[in-house]
Write a structure and sequence with these properties.
about 200 residues; alpha+beta; Ribosomal Protein S4 Delta 41, Chain A, domain 1; Structural Genomics Hypothetical 15.5 Kd Protein In mrcA-pckA Intergenic Region, Chain A; 2 domains; five-stranded antiparallel β-sheet; 5 strands; about 10% strand; globular
Length: about 200
């Protein structure tokens, strides 16, 4: 399926956050793109604020509109708080978990590793980035791919696991998805309540 391949730093400047990873462009120009980017008098409507949060979530996790809406509908049909369910489903995606485990430095790299069949889930190669993990699933690097430079460099640079819903053994290049994360443990700065309000109109 097609995905966003446009200028990443322009989007990061639009949201004023490094949603695609460390951004030197954002450090140099900490304001929005375009001729009105520096304006201090931009008053946004309620709809614009809600839409901005949805767009931020989409670009952060690398989803298209139809994928995101389908995931929202799945979250709203599940028992519990819709916004929290949505974030849990986003975090449980295989490409996102590969990124969180440190196999890749960005979600784009993680998506590529998955589609190129470098990732194994419970001993079976899975090449679907949107694959939803379940508690107890083991995510590891395919034996033939353990010498891939990108993976080794990413693992070496990755800090010790900061996510209490994941376990990682760098030596064996294997990780475990322990459970869905709690909303307060997810580090992304996304106001999911505004997304719920947008889709509820």
């Amino acid at each position: 399926m097609a995905r966003y391949t446009g200028p990443k730093q322009k989007k990061a400047r639009r949201f004023k956050e490094p949603i695609f990873g460390a951004s030197k462009a954002l450090e140099r120009k900490p304001y929005g793109p375009g001729q009105h980017g520096r304006s201090r008098f931009q008053k946004k409507s309620e709809y614009a604020v809600q839409l901005e949060q949805k767009q931020k979530a989409k670009y952060t996790y690398g989803l298209l509109e139809r994928q995101f809406r389908n995931l929202f509908e799945k979250a709203s049909s599940k028992e519990g708080v819709t916004g929290e369910n949505l974030m849990k489903f986003l975090e449980a995606r295989l490409d996102n978990t590969v990124f969180r485990l440190g196999y890749a430095r960005t979600r784009r790299q993680a998506r590529q590793l998955v589609t190129h069949k470098h990732i194994v889930v419970n001993g079976i190669v899975v090449n679907i980035p949107s694959y939803t993990l379940r508690a107890g699933d083991i995510i590891s690097i395919r034996p033939k791919s353990k010498n891939v430079a990108l993976i080794n460099e990413s693992l070496q640079a990755a800090p010790k696991s900061r996510y209490n819903w994941l376990e990682i053994d760098k030596k064996s290049m294997s990780g475990r998805f322990l459970s869905y994360p709690e909303i307060d443990d997810i580090p992304e700065n996304i106001n999911v309540q505004l997304i719920v309000e947008l889709y509820s109109k």
